[in-house]
Description:
18 helices, single chain, Rossmann fold, Arc Repressor Mutant, subunit A, 10 strands
Amino acid sequence: xxxxxxxxxxxxxxxxxxxxSLYKNRDALLEEYTPDELVGRxxxxxxxxxxxxxxxxxxxxxxxxxxxxxxVGKTAATRFLLSQLRADVERYDxxxxxxxxxxxxxxxxxxxxxxxxxxxxxDPANHISNTGYxxxxxxxxxxxxxxxxxxxxxxxxxxVDHIKDNSILYQIPRARSNGYLTNSRIGIIGISNDLSFxxxxxxxxxxxxxxxxxxxxxxxxxxxxxxxxxxxxxxxHPEVLSSDxxxxxxxxxxxxxxxxxxxxxxxxxxxxxARKDGAEKIxxxxxxxxxxxxxxxxxxxxxxxxxQHARLVLYALATLDAAGETxxxxxxxxxxxxxxxxxxxxxxxxxxxxRDHLADLSMLGIVTSIEKNEGMSxxxxxxxxxxxxxxxxxxxxxxxxxxxxxxxxxKRYHQPTLDEAFRK
Length: 424
């Protein structure tokens, strides 16, 4: 592939050649990679291992629930131990094991999960549609498919807290005792980012599950350094990382709720930036640039998922920030928000709903909302301001700005500047 430079007329080659100057195995930093050894999670692995022991003994499997925030090693631990369990089961003739994995993100009902399971087990030519079947019929299909497998089945339900009703978590553990299964014994491994998920289950579901629980606390900076150094040995050639790179990535990861995934993503992005620059080493500056880029991308992604009115609220706040008028109370923000609604012929939300959007933006880390208390004279209220760089927020709102119109306060952030910020 070739491109012609308009300024000089020179032909620039865009041919591809392999570049392994930094990376030895870049895939070792990706989410799907399972290391040969899981570091920083010895206690949790011991508990999890003990809960899986009945499988290798040829006994009925336990139901196991793993709790902890995103990026603390729940899914990695599950993949690691199940990989070892599959290998060890091969040594015994009287144990057969099947593992079925379903991510429940986007599946908000037991009905949808059951259909996904049926279709996972069936040949594509025999898949059933997502609607149109009575729930009892879908469960009947599911029992038939599970029983045809036979032996021990471990059903991994990642992000299980997305399921809004408890039906499938009640039905599956009781399927054998209710006579729906004769050849198979099933254990559920539920993985949840919601620490209070168990409390949301009904008493009969908790009783039916009789689960083992393993809690995964956030990584601290020292544990994150161990995780990163392990991946460094696999991912990079020797001595391509400056000495301060891993401590800095670990510090940022610990700051971001002890999230190993974010720390690994940061190291990966730093490596990619260094490779793009043709650098011989990955430096602290590459890490800082990578963090800025990932944060910018996170804001753009977060804004893209907002409702129209949430974007209008954010746009209103951004224009006040550009004019140096923040922090502001919601009642000071409302006239600008109503103005934007009028410009697109949309009915403004109530003041309460507008405040709800501000709270959501605060949770996303885009807006800072600080509570003030002026006692008897002024009462309690919140002041709002942008938490992220104004230019980044405006670039993320580019579609909204084009639709609503460019407010006077942001005209100095001319369109080329916004486009450039968006492309970074």
